[in-house]
Each structure stands twice: as C-alpha cells, then as structure tokens.
Amino acid sequence: MSEWLPLPTEDGSFTFFSKTFNEAFHSRFGAKQEAFLKFAQATDLADRAAQPSICLLDVCYGLGYNTAAALEVIWTVNPDCHVTLYALELDITVPQAAIAPPLIDIWSPPIQDILTAIAQQHHYITANLNATLLVGDARRTIQQLHPINFQADAIFFDPFSPRRCPQLWTVEFFTLVAQCLISTGKLATYSRSASVRAAMLEAGLKIGTIPLGVGHQLNDWSHGTVGSFQPPPHSLSQLEQEHLQTRAAIPYRDRTLSDSAETILQRQTQEQQQSQLESTSSWRRRWSLD
Ligand SMILES: C[S@@+](CC[C@H](N)C(=O)[O-])C[C@H]1O[C@@H](n2cnc3c(N)ncnc32)[C@H](O)[C@@H]1O
User: Is the CB of 25 under 6 A from ligand 1?
Assistant: First the structure.
C-alpha cells in the first residue's frame, strides 16, 4: 500500500503528509486554493497567457497542483498558448500516488491526463505542451537547465518549510534558480520568512510581498514572496522591511550544494548567535505579533 494517504484540506481538495519532513504538502486552508493564489495568480499567468508561448519551472512538483492550476489558468485564457514545463521532484512516488482518485478529480479531464502522463512517463508532448519531470535532488537537477538555456516566465518555488528543508532555501540554490528566470519573469513562493527573503535578495532578485486577502490570521503579515528582476507590484510593508533587519534575516548557506539539513541549520544558528542585529522576538513585540 502507498505510504501517501489523502488528507482533506478546508477547500475540499486533498493533500499528503510527509513523515520524513513531518509536514503536510499544502496549507490546511486549501491545497487547490493555494496553487491558484500563491503561484498561478502571483506570477500573473492570466495576463501572460496572451503570449503565444509560456515557459514554466515547477520546483518541488509534488502532487503537481501548481502545474495543474497554471495550465488551467493559461488555457482558460488562451487555449492555443504553447507551454514548456520543467518540473523538479525528489520522490517519484508522490506524483504517482497523486494521480489516483479522489486527489486528481479536482482537475479538468485534459489536465488529469497530463498529470497522469507526467507521473508515469516523465515526458509528455502534445500540440500545446512540452513537459519534462526531472527526478532527483533539485540542487542537482536544476543544473541540467543551464546548458540548454531554459528561461522561465514563471517559477513556482514550493519546497517544504525552511526549517524542515533548508537545503532548498539557501542563497546558492536560489542563485541557480534565478538563473532560469527571464528578465520579465516572476518567482513565487508561499514563504514570507526573513531568511528566505534575504537569500532571494542575495541571489540578485528584487522582492515583493503576496498581500493578505480578507479573513487572515491576526498575527500573519503576508501570503508569501514574489521575486523578479523588475520592481515588484506589491512592495514590502514597513513591518516586513524591519523583519529583514533582524537576526531572522540571516540566510541559509550551502556553498557546495550538498550539505545536510542539519549542517545548514547549525551554520545559520552560529551566525545568528554572533550577530549584532536586533533579535526577532523584539521585532515581534514591537509589531504586537505575539
Ligand atoms: C511542499 S511539497 C510540494 C507540493 C507541490 N508543489 C504540489 O503542488 O503538490 C514539497 C515537495 O518537495 C519534494 N522534495 C523534497 N526535497 C527535495 C529535493 N531535495 N529536491 C527536489 N524535491 C524535493 C518532496 O518530495 C515534495 O514532493
């Protein structure tokens, strides 16, 4: 039996829970909603779909929800838009388990066929899609995209959370990912952590926030972060800018792109202990976040 058991989220779509990372794959508020809001919408896919072609990079493909939401949005606007997709995923059993009902039923039949083909064949070519799933550690597989000069209009950046999977939130990994972003492109992630934002800045990206909608938690401040080479549409608030001046903004580093999570976390803790920056708890108190 598969180790992946469907777990319902609040919008009726399902997610998985990883025992290895001790974390769910999506927000409990809604897996499908998260894919549309924090990834497809945050990277302006509805507007970009007017182009004759779009290139997508899905970092941490998982159940394929970010890819699925993107394709639904693009082809609703322009069914003729040609999509080139590269997706990176460590564990092939995840996309394979996700193509069974009830998980896959949330997508339209053509998108179900695509998710199934990607999970089973890793390559899928039709008149308006050229999709490739690269299986392995994304720190390695991303390096296959540089020689072919792959440049994405939109990058979905969706690893497990920074404390659980720091190896994919380092300055060095963001630098490799940013090399795959076209000058007008956008990278979106659900994380609004200061260390993640600092790593994105050090990788050469400008950053903006994904603003909260209605009904958010009182002590929350953002739905995530957008990185681009152009000024972001939603600048960081004063609260967020001050967050970047605290010890929480010391980024993860992994110079050889091969360190363990433990080594990367320890390195950051040591740097934080030696830092003269304001403590993050004092910043939280100033902004009444506790
Ligand atoms: C939060 S989930 C992604 C959810 C996914 N975007 C979706 O819509 O279903 C994180 C994914 O990252 C994968 N992962 C973990 N470490 C990885 C690594 N080093 N390289 C590539 N993928 C990794 C996990 O197997 C998991 O599928």
Answer: yes
